[in-house]
């Protein structure tokens, strides 16, 4: 059965004089006997349990494999900007190693993600508050055996939220998110956004 060992160190500090704060966190996880995929890619048309499977079809089972690791480091620094709001800067690094079997060959998939972001949260008056943010991540996926699946790509997200009270009676709220992926295959590159809004009345 799987056994997981996890270690995490976290440090927070607030500086009253400058009203700034920062936080640093690092963690690591090791899973022994991890539940992993064992995938068989058929090299010819095959019938299994009276089911016709074409060449190239995949059959996946579950096996216990060791050497599953993950590690993460995250830091954030925030400080106020006079008459505007609070600015937060962040940086992160994530690493995962996942074992699997592909046609009985052991493959380690190693994913490195380097990220950074910035956000501004404001409450400029009792009737208006908003936040805007950006996060970008560079992803590198490397495989020890299945090298055809290696890939490098960039992902980013832009967010905006606002809440406005008009004439002390009406509340307007909006939430916007734009996500994009760059560097994947042409069919998988995506750029999409989500937008929602509502109007309320204060009784």
Describe the structure.
The structure is a single chain. The protein is an all-beta fold and 203 residues long. It contains no helices and 13 strands. It starts with a strand and ends with a strand.
Key phrases:
single chain; 203 residues; mainly beta; eleven-stranded mixed β-sheet; two-stranded antiparallel ribbon; 13 strands
How would a crystallographer describe the biggest sheet?
Answer: 11 strands, mixed
Radius of gyration: 24 Å
Low-pLDDT ranges: none
Strand content: over 45%
Extended strand count: 13
List the topology elements.
Elements: E1 3-15, E2 20-32, E3 34-41, E4 46-48, E5 51-53, E6 58-65, E7 68-81, E8 85-102, E9 105-125, E10 128-143, E11 151-166, E12 170-182, E13 191-201
Parallel strand pairs: 3-8
Antiparallel strand pairs: 1-2, 2-7, 3-6, 4-5, 7-8, 8-9, 9-10, 10-11, 11-12, 12-13
């Amino acid at each position: 059965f799987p056994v997981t060992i996890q270690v995490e160190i976290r440090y927070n500090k607030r500086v009253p004089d400058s009203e700034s704060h920062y936080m640093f966190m690092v963690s690591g996880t090791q899973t022994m006997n991890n539940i992993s995929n064992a995938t068989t890619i058929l090299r010819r048309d095959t019938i299994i349990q009276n089911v016709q499977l074409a060449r190239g079809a995949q059959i996946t089972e579950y096996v216990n494999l060791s050497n599953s690791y993950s590690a993460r480091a995250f830091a954030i620094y925030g400080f106020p900007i006079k008459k505007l709001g609070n600015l937060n800067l962040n940086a992160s690094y994530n690493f995962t190693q996942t074992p699997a079997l592909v046609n009985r060959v052991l493959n380690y998939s190693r994913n490195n993600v380097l990220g950074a972001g910035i956000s501004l949260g404001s409450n400029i008056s009792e009737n208006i508050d908003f936040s805007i943010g950006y996060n970008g991540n560079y992803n590198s996926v490397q495989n020890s055996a299945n090298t055809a699946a290696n890939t490098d790509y960039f992902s980013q997200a832009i967010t905006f939220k606002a809440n406005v009270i008009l004439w002390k009676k009406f509340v307007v709220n909006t939430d916007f998110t734009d996500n994009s992926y760059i560097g994947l295959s042409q069919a998988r590159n995506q750029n999409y956004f989500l937008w929602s809004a509502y109007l309320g009345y204060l009784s």
